[in-house]
Amino acid sequence: MEQIPVYECNNLNDVKSATKNLDKASMVLLKIDDSGVIKDVDNFKGIYNVSKGQFCTSVVPYYNLIQHKEYIDGFAEALQRLNIKYEMAIKQSGNRVFVDIEFPDKKHEFKKLNETFICGIRLVNSYDKTTGIFIVPRFKRLACMNGMIITSFEKTVSVKHTSKMVSEIEKFIELRLNDIISRYSDLQQWVSNSMEDSLEWKLCCGIIEKLFTQIKHREQILKNLGIDIVVVEDKKNKKKNVSYVWTDKDKKKLKFTRWELYNSITQYLSHGEHISPHIEALFHKRAERLFTTPLRKMPAIKIVI
């Protein structure tokens, strides 16, 4: 797998230097070949990734194309105006850019967990309509350095490129930035709720299997819980039979809470190798279901032990 560069920044100059390396795109006219006659397409335009030399998607004429550089630079400038210290990591994958921003001075201590969380946000933008302007709260547990992305919070912002708000990017950024970084009270309640219910470990394996169908990912997630996967392939039909083995004999822990399951996933996403930003974002959405859905309502499946 191709190594995706990560640009680490903590001031405006760093950010502007990094964003020079990001892809640029442009709005282009579309034409069709109608039986050998080239005609203009009036009701649609195209997005063309100039840096990659690739067509991205068709859009309506009033679409607001926001360049990756314009979006990220605008955030960095807003942070500087507000005198907010930050650490920023910029990654590009396909036609999307993912930016994780942490605010070292903005921490929450949870006495119930005896842990500290650093607050932050994730930014996403795309040239192919897979996402609009996206701003979501992000947290990091200092105890294990696991990243947590929670899109279900009220303060998550997702705005389509067709919105009039996006055309005034500077005003939009500062307004949303102030709103998001000033309200993190929901996290403690979500974590507390996720610690209240638990399920026997075999049923937890079924939940993880339902959320993560690929064995290579599931194997690493369950290993964090002290569970191994055994795969036996039928020589005739090539069907794979999966079973689970409890390996953590000493602790004799036979049940898990949603919080423990969630952390086994975020540990893999934060510290696992060769996970693309796209897959990471997708898996964070799946992990989030463990926060929003009680275990008894999760889609468990029958498993072989």
For the terminal residues, how far apart are their CA atoms?
Answer: 33 Å
Instruction: List how many beta strands DSSP finds.
Output: 14
State the helicity in percent bands.
25-40%
Using only C-alpha atoms, the radius of gyration works out to 22 Å
Number of domains: 2
Set down the secondary structure blueprint.
Blueprint: E1 6-9, H1 12-19, E2 25-34, E3 37-49, E4 54-59, H2 68-81, E5 87-93, E6 96-110, E7 115-126, E8 133-141, E9 146-149, E10 157-159, H3 164-167, H4 169-181, H5 186-194, E11 198-200, H6 201-211, H7 215-223, E12 227-233, E13 240-246, E14 255-257, H8 258-271, H9 277-292
Antiparallel strand pairs: 1-5, 2-3, 3-4, 5-6, 6-7, 7-8, 8-9, 8-10, 11-14, 12-13
Question: What report would you give on this structure?
Answer:
By secondary structure, this protein is α+β, with helices and mostly antiparallel strands. It folds into two domains: 6-22 and 62-189, no CATH class; 198-297, no CATH class. Helix content is 32%, strand content 34%. The protein has nine helices and 14 strands. Strands 1, 5, 6, 7, 8, 9 and 10 form a seven-stranded antiparallel β-sheet that branches. Strands 2-3-4 form a three-stranded antiparallel β-sheet, with no helix packed on it. A hairpin with a 6-residue loop joins strand 12 and strand 13 (240-246). Helix 2 packs across helix 4, helix 7 (215-223) crosses helix 8 and helix 8 runs antiparallel to helix 9. The chain is globular and about 70 Å long. The model is unreliable at 301-305 (pLDDT under 50).
